[in-house]
């Protein structure tokens, strides 16, 4: 009986810890959509190039944040706005 209670208590502790870690991590994650939204709010026209740059930063793949900035600047986004947008995508 005591062993069963210990197993149940241990399982409950593990599940609670897992649930808390997932709940704590979710709000900190940004998306490419937030990058795009920032640029839209700054008055930029959003097209495939902007979405692709933000996706690249959010995915953290080849180029990541630097590639995102270079692409956005080539599309006419100011350097400061590009840096901010790409940083938002990687948070």
From TrEMBL:
Organism taxonomic ancestry: Bacteria, Bacillati, Actinomycetota, Actinomycetes, Pseudonocardiales
Signal sequence bounds: 1-30
Record protein name field: Secreted protein
Source organism per UniProt: Amycolatopsis suaedae
Top-level taxonomic group: Bacteria
Entry keywords, A to Z: Signal
């Amino acid at each position: 009986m005591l062993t069963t209670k210990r197993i149940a208590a241990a399982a409950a502790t593990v599940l609670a810890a897992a649930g808390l870690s997932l709940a704590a991590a979710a709000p900190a994650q940004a998306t490419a959509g937030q990058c795009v939204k920032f640029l839209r709010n700054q008055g930029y026209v959003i097209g495939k190039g902007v979405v692709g740059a933000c996706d690249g930063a959010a995915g953290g793949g080849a180029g990541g944040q630097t590639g995102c900035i270079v692409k956005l600047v080539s599309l006419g986004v100011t350097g400061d706005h590009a840096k901010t947008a790409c940083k938002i995508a990687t948070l």
